[in-house]
Amino acid sequence: MTTHNDDVDWDRWPVADYLAENYREVHPSDAAIIAHHSAFYRRFPPGGIDRSVEFGAGPNLYPLILASAACRRIDAVEAGAGSVAYLQEQICHRLDASWLPFHALCRELNPDVPATLAGALAPVNVVHADVRTLPPGFYELASMHFVAEGATEDFAEFADFCRTFVRTVTPGGHLVAAFMENLPTHRIGPASHWPGCPVNPTTVTEVFTPLTRDLDVTHIDTDRTLPDYGDSGMVLLTGVAEPV
Q1: pLDDT tens across 47-91, in order?
Q2: Which of 181, 125, 106 is nearest to 149 (CA)?
Q3: Could you tell me if 80 and 127 are in contact, meaning their C-beta atoms sit under 8 angstroms apart?
Q4: CA-CA distances (angstroms) from residue 137 to 25, 97, 181, 182, 218?
Q5: Local structure of 112: helix, strand or coil
């Protein structure tokens, strides 16, 4: 049977295992994404974006750090209770020191990132919600990392998530995203399985071409320093939203 997003209890997402496997150090793929996204955010003056959204934020802080260079308000929208609790803890109470090297690299590549990690996270507003309920056209910029292809095994549902992602911004709004390439159903931690929808630069381009202009899709090779989830690298995207 094909697993769809609503078949999954996202409150059970293994936040601690996910962070331990992926974000306790800056991996080469992280550095490549940060370099790619920093070039994107350098297009905008500090505070030039009024409202942005991290679409399915999870517990990953570096997309929020990157956005802080340009965005006055960043809504980190996440459905899973564990990820929401982690984000709230980080922003309101205690920052994990493991994020400091990520912040340092983000700031090195874009000096408009605030000088401290706490300052970079100050614009973030954590929203506990399903991204599919977001109002259309509310944001000027939308960012998404490893969400649409990790939420379902069904390609049609993947494409629906991508359309919803584009619809969150006003026409002419800006988009930046990263996808795991050819991600299958996979394990995180010792005993949990999660859906995956295999996509690649061609399929990502086919989905986003009718939804965007100025579309740019690039590829990062497999990062051997990360766990083997069965993927074959990452796909990075920038673009401008057309009316959907």
Answers
A1: 999 999 999 999 999 999 999 999 999 999 999 999 999 999 999
A2: 181
A3: no
A4: 35, 36, 28, 30, 26
A5: coil
